[in-house]
Design a protein that fits this description.
Chain lengths: 515, 515
């Protein structure tokens, strides 16, 4: 298999042409990581076609509930779906056709610092912090509710760590701020304390509208209408329900040309069948239905095929992470997204451990490695996640970020240049000698191997002399030192003022009206 | 790509025919894990061909030192190599030709319990404990020199844990036994306390001979001459030196039809060039030279392409584990072995951490996941390894074994049966409901998802109520309970007596003569 087809996956030339035709916002494309290793193709084409066939059968025979949104039902009906109450059934192939007709294969999400803009889709990988935890495992080891200060800290850390390409969204829930208003503080923190791209609020359509309006203060309304500056997380309510709030938020973003991730959130065995094939079928059906809706709202609006799958423990009903079945799903999910020709979101440093111990690390690493092989484009939850997503760990964040640095080297593949072949080194050194002082090593050592600033590779004796610190302790030390070193990126004072004014106005309105 | 070619890798039909022609000892083939997912093919064929070309160039132009073994030099010279002092140069292609002519593509290693026999090579994966640590991290947390009791404990644990298919070799160094005699106690412990296959001693040719003789007590001399009952680890002395002791041990095993793993042990940057391509080139050259020697000693003797590669830290010179460059080497190494058509040994739960913390787990998981993707057949160091191999951890052993259980599910691939497609489950449940009580879930839940007996998936509150135990603490508890439950497998008293007699006789000889 040649290098160029290898990097593009297995599909035929038709998909390639389609991707090029559907690429949008390409003027300032910037990669997170430019993938230079093959995708891992777990399933043969015939099995993928079977999943696609079964997903079509679900969409046609069983259908999807689009709840509380008569406008959506009209839109879907006009596009050829059969609407019966709130149940929507799609003729086989309709969703795929509508998505492939207009959804971009990749898109640029602009950051306020153009050097931080990322291209999402294609051969690129973007690492994004964990999303949603109401708790933190704090710097002093205490587990407590998250605050706005924690939120700001994680934004600062993601800004400082080069292996994170994105500032994320709800990096933790600032529960010290009223729920009706906290989306404004979160957006402001992302923009103020970082210059990396970010995610908008989805917890109410009005908060999505606020997110767009806030970004207008930064980028201007005109720029925003023709460029994507927000990528936001729209969960599908599995099985087979698209609820009013999520649909409403998705609509706001799509109407404004902003990106959405249509993400079935599946605890397999509870919210989907207890098999890999069944769960994949359902996820594909749900993602297709959601992406179809987005493309009907605004054809060409950027949309990402999202997938979050955990297996529930059949003993306790608890979600599990880093286990083999969801990893098989993840690998196949990447293939399904590539066949569809849209960007893929999945994976991350998932775990169910309550602390940053060996369980957390095994589970996170298992999913991270597989995510990289699977070709995840937008890796949400890449750093910080503990307790099945209920808790954000300062130590875990630093540890995961180190792992992401390693993945970026893995994804960059193998240098095959003459220098890398090192024939002169062999001629210089020969049998029984060593390469440490060779000319080739001296010329290459600085960029040779990934350098972890967290792993302790020293002797037992040296580690002992330095206090027998475990990885979590070293991570906390590194975290404190990073936060101490933090300096904010420059921000135009006029933009800062405009955002502060906007927030104050909106908070006053929310206090008065409740929304 | 169809399922059958997928499972066989990418090479053409010629290799397949060759493999079938060279399969030996097939009468009682039993798998460890039967691989049912594709190999991850990192490098395109032209890059693999380039590495093979460069390895040939090394073998032809620079050559390999075969130290202190005039007999070997004669054998190699007679086969067409150019011998200059102890430096041996091979005409391009000669090693590959000699290895492919007679080395089996896969072989059965017999265990004393035929149900434990394993097939090594092809689509099979065998998990083997860590090898060589002089220290243990004990059940009470202390780090100290290993003893024979520790050795016996790890043999018992590997016997009890179904995810380990092999009893291994020097699972730790019993330093309380004189170095000249301990190989006998180790062999006896493997046979007495387990019925899984095992590895022989390589630290002197006489100890290899003792290993063979001891196995004759178990299997009979005749059976042993036509069947493989030992797989032993022959390290190549990188760069490009095959030393007298290792060659002598390899000769003993090959002459007796026993398997050897020819394993370059490379700390890249010190013992090989500081690049992925350069290190792969050297490893291939060394493995080819060593396997050629084995095939010349006894054509058809089972031999495994071994590969152990770590990147040294360019700051401290210390070996590092779980990092991306050795993982890229590992993936390519699997491809090189498949092109050669011999079994592949690499990978494992490698780490440099001193304790079973998050560092240990990230590093181990990174290598374990990649090993599975790479198609490692004989995964030495799969469980227990700490401190870059200097220490065997009781907790780490239990943790790694749990990960191996997960890998065996991953390697088994995706069930695509009608039952797994679960269309009836969707028809039963429908949008907005849940699958927990559905007929399909009830019929499938018992075998549905991998069940870890180590991961804590419970709520924070429950975990807290149960004492906030970290993964290492739970692993120690599980380890103690396993050892408490241990009962030895049945052993014919006549065999036991014969082994004890043999040991006593040899120990008396060693005491008298020093060997």
């Amino acid at each position: 298999m040649g290098a160029s087809t290898r990097r593009k996956g297995r599909s035929g030339g038709g998909r390639r042409a389609r991707i090029e035709a559907r690429s949008s916002n390409q003027s300032t494309a910037r990669p997170g990581i430019d993938r230079n290793i093959p995708y891992y193709d777990l399933l043969p084409d015939e099995t993928l076609a079977l999943i696609e066939h079964n997903a079509d059968l679900l969409l046609e025979e069983i259908g999807v509930d689009f709840n509380g949104n008569p406008e959506a039902l009209e839109l879907l009906s006009a596009a050829g779906a059969k609407v019966d109450g709130e149940r929507v059934r799609f003729p086989a192939g309709l969703c795929r056709e509508l998505v492939q007709a207009t959804a971009p294969a990749e898109f640029v999400q602009h950051a306020r610092n153009p050097e931080r803009s990322v291209t999402i889709g294609g051969d690129r990988t973007v690492f994004v912090p964990a999303y949603g935890p109401p708790f933190v495992r704090a710097l002093d080891g205490e587990r407590r509710y998250a605050t706005l200060e924690d939120f700001q800290n994680f934004v600062k850390l993601a800004y400082l760590l080069p292996s994170l390409h994105h500032s994320g969204g709800t990096v933790c829930e600032p529960v010290d701020i009223p729920v009706e208003e906290r989306h404004l503080d979160m957006l402001y923190a992302h923009i103020k304390y970082s210059d990396k791209p970010l995610m908008g609020s989805v917890t109410a359509p009005s908060r999505a509208a606020d997110s767009v309006a806030m970004m207008e203060q930064v980028f201007g309304a005109e720029f925003l209408q023709s460029n994507t500056v927000l990528t936001s997380l729209i969960n599908f309510n599995s099985p087979l329900v698209f609820d009013q709030v999520m649909m409403g938020a998705a609509r706001v973003y799509a109407e404004n040309n902003q990106a959405t991730i249509i993400s079935p959130f599946v605890l397999a065995g509870a919210m989907s069948p207890v098999t890999v094939m069944g769960t994949l079928t359902q996820i594909l059906a749900e993602a297709l239905a959601g992406m179809t809706y987005v493309q009907l709202v605004r054809p060409g609006a950027p949309v990402i095929f999202g997938m979050f799958a955990s297996a529930v423990s059949m003993q306790s009903g608890a979600p599990t992470f880093g286990t083999p079945e969801p990893n098989l799903m993840l690998l196949a999910g990447g293939q399904l997204a590539r066949r569809l020709g849209v960007p893929f979101r999945s994976g991350g440093g998932l775990c169910s451990s309550k602390i940053a111990d060996a369980q957390a690390a095994y589970e996170a690493a298992n999913t991270l490695q597989v995510s990289a092989m699977a070709g995840v484009n937008f890796m949400l939850h890449a750093a910080g996640w503990l307790e099945g997503g209920l808790c954000m760990g300062y130590d875990k964040f630093i540890m995961d970020a180190d792992q992401l640095g390693m993945l970026s080297v893995l994804l960059s593949g193998v240098d095959t240049s003459d220098n890398a072949q090192a024939l002169d080194a062999f001629r210089e050194v020969g049998p029984g000698a060593h390469f440490l002082g060779s000319a080739h090593t001296l010329a290459n050592f600085e960029s040779a191997f990934y350098r972890s600033d967290l792993a302790d590779n020293n002797s037992f004796e040296q580690w002992q002399a330095e206090g027998e610190k475990d990885c979590a302790e070293r991570a906390i030390e590194r975290c404190k030192s990073l936060l101490d070193s933090y300096e904010p990126p420059p921000l135009d004072p006029a933009i800062d003022e405009a955002m502060i004014d906007f927030m104050a106005r909106r908070k006053a309105e929310i206090d008065a009206n409740g929304a």
